[in-house]
Design a protein that fits this description.
homodimer, 214 residues, alpha/beta, Arc Repressor Mutant, subunit A, Rossmann fold, seven-stranded mixed sheet, three-stranded antiparallel sheet, 19% strand, globular
Chain lengths: 214, 214
Amino acid sequence: MKKEKISNNVIRRLPRYLRKLDELKTAGINRISSTELGQQLGFTPSQIRQDFNCFGEFGQQGYGYNVPLLREQIASILGMDRGYTAVLIGVGHIGRALVDNFCFQEWGFNLLQAFDVDPGLVGKDVSGVHISPMEALPDFLKNNKVDIVVLAVPRDAALPTAEMLIDNGVNAIWNFTNVELVEPDSKVIVENVHFSDSLLALSYFVSDRYDSQK
Amino acid sequence: MKKEKISNNVIRRLPRYLRKLDELKTAGINRISSTELGQQLGFTPSQIRQDFNCFGEFGQQGYGYNVPLLREQIASILGMDRGYTAVLIGVGHIGRALVDNFCFQEWGFNLLQAFDVDPGLVGKDVSGVHISPMEALPDFLKNNKVDIVVLAVPRDAALPTAEMLIDNGVNAIWNFTNVELVEPDSKVIVENVHFSDSLLALSYFVSDRYDSQK
């Protein structure tokens, strides 16, 4: 597959395409034009064609896109077919919500184990995921291929835990702590889930709406 | 203040600027150049100047940016000084994590009340937020100015709840349900927190890293 340097914006749109294609597949739709796909997503057809062109040719002139095929190709670009593994650190409310309600498997990830410092949690299984003590983590990382670490510890523990992870060779962190873990030039890949960024964007859109109604 | 049509990308970067400026303020730094700010955020200085130019002139040639002033201006653009109010629907793990750990106040929001269908939760207070029964919601919305609704109900309840909210005049939803609530052309403002989008972006970056190491 042709692979060019892909802009961050395109990468961020791919999961949205994937969700829409899953929806179409479920609805039994096998073929869609870029115009129709654009309408359903609120994108222009030319934006869609441009996005997909980054990865090679997905569509056929006059035919449109083959929904299941396009879905598989996007899934593959996103690495969903690579059998990635994850461990979760911190089984508080957020960690628990992820274990109970977030289907890692659906996105190609196998959640191997969870770790926590709370003796009341250690040794238990939640939604089929075993909770081990934090002390067991370095050995676990040594003995298992762990592609990403899901970090859901309290704010205060965020930086020391991230340091410990990096010392133990972790190179990708899915960060729910609302703390900036690394400098921008760090070799560790950190994907932040900043709830506040999302709320503030909403706050902006609401303000813009109110202002336009004045 | 000059106000132009601002691109979605700029809007999405503003909360990051805000976080960085808060950090600088806390560290006692009152002035910063676009070069330095760019280095700390991983942006180019010209991108930073361009972003801020969308809203008018924030910096002074040869002086840089006044950190507390710039912080206040960005906060104001984001609507943080407008006294917005929110209610939470669904006090499961995610809802509970938001009530307990997410500081709405810090971002200019007042979380007025929570609503749930579970009789075991109704009537209780969690982290100072009262949980009312879902039946009480329509009256609450009628009698109070509610700017946004935080939707953290289970997947199956997402669409019917969103419909009910819209019927009751709600026009902004912060959506944690992982369900697409409205068509792209809907008048309701929906800000989605899609964990899967974030995980898949991380999955892409990890794949890209692995491929480059081959």
